[in-house]
# Entry
Amino acid sequence: MSRKPLVVLLGALLALVGCTAAPGPSPSPSPALPTPTIGLTYIPNVQFSPFYVAETDGHYTEEGVQPILRHHGTSEGLFTAIAAGQEQFVIAGGDELMQARAQGVDLVAVATYFRSYPVVMIVPADSPIRTLADLRGHTIGLPGKYGESWFGLLVALKSAGLTEADVKIAEIGYTQQPALTNGRVDAVVGFSNNDAVQFALAGVATRSLPIASGEVPLVGACLITTHAYASAHPDVVKAVVAGTMAGITAVVEKPERALEVSAHYVPDLDTAAGKASATATLAATKPLWTRDDGTVDATLDEAQWSRMADFLVSSGITANRQDPTAAITNSFIPAR
# Structure
């Protein structure tokens, strides 16, 4: 789930661009149910299938809400709409949330979406790069020095005992596949459930290296709202969290149903190529949603967020260490 630079994101507050709505069949909002808007960012994708399933199969209405699912336009800031009050929830990385909080945006994570960090280092299958330390002297491509790809690269360099001066960093936009295939770069920073999948579907043999030898000091995608909204509408937040968790569980248990529902939201998923891509992406995303035992748990880990706060300030991503206890809350997660 790569993003635009945060400076651009926040700078767009006074000029919110139009959205790209999910093309799926959204039910007409009932006046009896709250209708908060959930920002799913960028374009429709099977990675968001828990939301599509929760909407289509009634998991949200069972909890007493009927959210509006909204995909951002490609030039829209990640937190622009939620900061302007035009969205009440958004899916974004925990690290992106912390960076935005450091810039004064009122955000709080209310549930985990991805339990593990999806960023990996991708190299050709026959590359001499076998470990992160082997990146020394090589060119690494990534969309730009922003967002989860950039944060992941900084983790990889630190894990390998390298600095930015030890490698060549190429900002290549979203051209990872041609850049690596054509030899413009020696490695690319990408996502395990997106870029790595697309290489395989294109018949390009690659290997993915984890960005840390141990636990990654970053937090992936979370369900985010604002403190102001959570304080004013606690029942709605609790209902959205519960409905989303039910959607994740349903997708994990019945991936074929997730593909069937997503076909009404994701363009080209009804084609053979589109379904093959979505099926592979869904399979690669499943481990991100679940614990090692396959269960779904939206609980936010304060210790993990504390380690991330330390990394973000030590890497200069945030000017000051952000208080993780102010950035997360588990109070809206249903009792197990």
Remarks:
- The mean pLDDT is 92.
- The first helix runs from residue 6 to 11.
- The first strand starts at residue 20 and ends at 21.
- The chain is about 40% helix and 15% strand.
